Each structure stands twice: as C-alpha cells, then as structure tokens.
Amino acid sequence: MDTLQALMTRRSVRKFEEKDVPEEMVRQILEAAMMAPSAGNAQPWQFIVVNERERLDAMADLHPYIKMVLQAPLGIIVCGDLTKEKYPGYWVQDCSAAMQNLLLAVHALGLGAVWTGIYPKEDRVAGYRAMFDLPENIIPLAFAPIGWPAQQPKSESRFLEDRIHYNSY
C-alpha cells in the first residue's frame, strides 16, 4: 500500500475479530509512531501498550467512547512527556503526529484502530493517570484500540473546495 492509498483509505475501526496481534506488528506500529516529526526533534512521547484482557476490559469505564476496547486484543496510549519537551506546549502536536503515524501503520498492516481522545478532558486524564500510575510529567493524549477489523468502513472523499484559501482568508 502506498502512502496516498493509506491516507485515502484509512478509517476508524470499532469492531474487531477475536485474534491476537503479533508482537512484531506491535513493534512496527510503535516504530512508525516514533518516526513522527516533533518540534525541535524533541520526540516528547511515551507509549503504553495495553494487552492484558482484564485491564482492557476495565478501561471501558474510563470514558463513554471507548466501549470497543472490550473487543480489541490490544491498545496503545500515546502520552506526552513534559520532561522531553524542547518547546513547551508543542507536545500535543508532536504526540498527535505520532498517533497519526500509528494509525497509518496499523492500516498498512491490515489491522484496524480508532483514535479516542483523552487530553484535554480532565476527568479522562485523571482516570488514565490513576489506572496506569502515570507520573505528573506524563500526560495521556489519546488511546487507540487496535485489532483485526471485523468491519470495513467505506472511504469517501472529504475534499471540500470551500475550505481552501490561497494567500489570505
């Protein structure tokens, strides 16, 4: 799959087959995530791979939009590490780029995932912080349940000419 095809066909997957994801694929996904650009090349991210069934099931109560975690064989939490920031505040952009790389790698490997937001919702941040014993300098940005897709969401163009402006608004 080439890059443009991956960009045009990746969609959020919320239903998964009961089938484990090989550890080598998890490594490839994380390696792709860590290739993301970051401000000053600071790479202020940390990743938590969640693959214990009991923990995944317990996560379903962390916020209302992650019930699909009950079917996913694993998930990855993308966190910002404030001690690794070179330019304060850019960790959100940096970690978002890492999450997008992660999602594209998942898709390229034939897997499915969905980006579920954590930050800046304080209740979600607090819930993840408590469940995963996160130190103060680590802020959970987002969580991606990952697995073999049990659905094939359609890809339609989202190109909107009226959203494009040249040289000024």
Automatic annotation (TrEMBL):
Keywords: Flavoprotein, FMN, Oxidoreductase. InterPro entries: Nitroreductase, Nitroreductase-like, Nitroreductase/BluB. Pfam families: Nitroreductase. GO terms for molecular function: oxidoreductase activity. Residues 8-62, 69-148 form the Nitroreductase domain. This is NADH dehydrogenase.
